[in-house]
Amino acid sequence: MTQSVKFAISELSESNAHMNAILHEMFGGVIGINLRNEIFLINPIAEKILNLSYNDVQNKVYSSIELPSLILQSIDEVKEKQHETKHRITLGNDLHLIVQNAPIRKLSGELIGYVVVLFDITEKTKLSQLQREFFTNVSHEIRTPLTSIQGFVETLSNYEMLSTENVQSIVEIMDKETIRLNGLINKMLEIANLEKEPETLKLEPVNLLNSVNTVFSSYTHNAENKNIKYSMSTIDPSINVLLNQSRFETVLSNLISNAIKYTKPTGTVHVKWNTNNGYGVLSVSDSGIGISSKDQEKVYQRFFRCDPSRNYNIPGYGLGLHISKTLCDTMNLTLDLESEIDVGSTFSIQNIAIVDTPLK
Ligand code: ADP
């Protein structure tokens, strides 16, 4: 072999290696089909999306392979039309794809095959579906109290015809409804703030008992109303921890309020402090409705709510745990969940750094 041929071969194999590396790292799945209708290329993402392996499909005619019928149809279409095609398809219930096909031509214009590019948009599709459901929920949640406030304002405009007791009970209901509206708006503002650029967070020594007690005692009334046995383990008053107090209290407040919300009357809710490898763990356990293992992975997603039939019409927006998890991340804390359907759930805030020196 002459030097120049050797050089050309080495250049070719180098550009082949580059091409393979690019196809390997591409975000989309790629399938190449030649004019004999055989598959000459399939990258790892396409293998994964279609649950195929290169060895099984290499050099096989595409129509002889078990490809989903919608993809087969899209290949037939690009061959017929001879220009780029693009479709959004759903495989099974769960896999949402964009399939973009195009003819492959040499620079001279000569046709040499077809390329199929697959983009997995399942996550994006699910998120927009959750967002749509969220806006429907939020509109409903806003409309209900507003309609009731509007009705009461009309009733109050004829206040001469009402007794003092009537006026008082109407004002109380209006007060409750405005508190609910405020709660929703605050949650939405918290989310909007979290989505801004993360600012550098200042962690400070905080007295653990004081902070836990502040949140714990603010839910005594809710627990009593539901006849829930509500308790807290003893915490040494000298323990100080490194936290951002307001963020920590928001997380704890979300966990306790959920525990009470998702536990039936006469159940139990317990807040417990522990140490593990020199770090603190604060857990909130309940004997509530529990979360299935399938849903446990999703509860931190924005807008996610477990199966509504299991939520017993308990109002909520699917935002509290997303906010809590994000706040924990900003403080280098881990939020852990153990749960069993109809037995109960334990959410624990782990990795809390304990401060040795007393507070000034
Ligand atoms: P919200 O309670 O407002 O719906 P969250 O983000 O706090 O939103 O919780 C998301 C979902 O996780 C809830 O809708 C509920 O289905 C489930 N969940 C959260 N905490 C508990 C719990 N302690 N017990 C059972 N299910 C829970």
Q: Give the DSSP E fraction (strand runs of 2 or more residues).
A: 15-25%
CA-based shape: elongated
Structural class: alpha+beta
At the third CATH level, what is the topology name of the largest domain? Heat Shock Protein 90
CATH class of the largest domain: Alpha Beta
Low-confidence runs of at least 5 consecutive residues: none
| Helix proportion | 40-55%
Q: Can you identify the CATH superfamily of the largest domain?
A: Histidine kinase-like ATPase, C-terminal domain
Count of domain modules: 3
- Total beta strand runs: 12
Q: Can you count the helices?
A: 11
Q: What's the end-to-end separation, in Å?
A: 82 Å
Largest sheet composition: 7 strands, mixed
Overview of the molecule:
With 360 residues, the protein is of the alpha+beta class. It has 3 domains: 2-120, Beta-Lactamase, CATH 3.30.450.20; 125-196, Helix Hairpins; 204-355, Histidine kinase-like ATPase, C-terminal domain (Heat Shock Protein 90), CATH 3.30.565.10. It contains 11 helices and 12 strands. A hairpin with a 3-residue loop joins strand 3 (85-91) and strand 4 (95-105). Helix 7 runs parallel beside helix 9 (245-261) and helix 9 runs antiparallel to helix 11 (320-330).
Which terms summarize this structure?
24% strand, 360 residues, single chain, 7-stranded mixed sheet, binds adenosine-5'-diphosphate, 11 helices, 45% helix, Beta-Lactamase, Heat Shock Protein 90, alpha+beta, Helix Hairpins, 5-stranded antiparallel sheet, 3 domains
